[in-house]
Specification:
By secondary structure, this protein is of the alpha/beta class. It contains 13 helices and 13 strands.
Amino acid sequence: MRQLAQSRTVLYVDTLGIRSPRLTARDARRAFGKLRRALSGARRIGENLYVWSPLVIPFHGSRLARRLNAWLLGVLTRRMMRTLRMSEPIVYAALPSALEVVKRLPRSALVYHCIDDYREFTDAPREAYEVMEDSLSRLADLTVVSSSRLLGLRRAAARNITYLPHGVDLTWFERALEEDLVLEDVDELPRPLAGFVGRIGDWIDVELVFRSAEAMPDWSFVVVGPTNIDLTPYSRLPNLVFVGLKSFPEIPHYIKRFSVALLPFVDNAVSASVNPLKLYEYLAVGVPVVSTPALDMAEFAGVVEVASRDQFPAAIRAAAEEDTEAARELRRTFVRRYSWRSIADELVQAIDAARSGATVRAA
């Protein structure tokens, strides 16, 4: 969206949510944060880029809740569009739960961008999501998917469909390689260091990270990111550190500290559809990457090492031992084809083709 905002006004409506809330302190904090953001109105975060966090009823499995959300969000979004002088915009939906809202919005085109198999998320209303997602794919002028499995899942319902991988802000990460930043929570840890960056949910094999740290006491292991699960059972090893959520400007500097970067995904339906954003960020920094077989890494053969759970510790050691400056430059060169600028250009071309009536079908 930052790339698209270079040439047009973009209103980014913050997530409508996927799962239903539970009576927990964590969900209460999330609800309070959403309320605070909603009351602040649209926030300008770039030249033509605005972020808005509206309030919704977070029970997407309820037909009544979906209807109330659609009516309320339709009214509020049209009002926000008028404020920003947006008359016939491209409407860009990233969640199936946006279906009833986008029906009510004036638009020159509708894009559905699918980056996960949302039906498989814990606490997501599976049947409701299947219906919403099929309907949204049929309605959209263009469906965009980020993995080969999602292409197979969405192809039948979509009128037009294309595959676009995730990308990376190369300028941002290349600049980070030239800068120094003190990271007090990792700079004093013994080296070598293996690390993971990203949200920690039930799709991440934390047990594998724990077992690898246990088998490699001469290494430090760092996990950077917020969590949806209880990490207490994994916090007893002195060489395994969970540092929590960090700001985006800090992320390249954490990755710079890694001797080896990890993609420890559980083998399940959610992981099978994932195109991990952090992979591109790892490669932009140039660090070696070791992944579990749960992810489709065919596109990254030669720059990512894939290892089974049993072989994961040995693969981490081998990746560090075989790393060279030439290998790091190879990874950085490889990922340049995935810049967000080039991804945005491909997206605009696909949208224009769909709007003109041309058939867009991914191979």
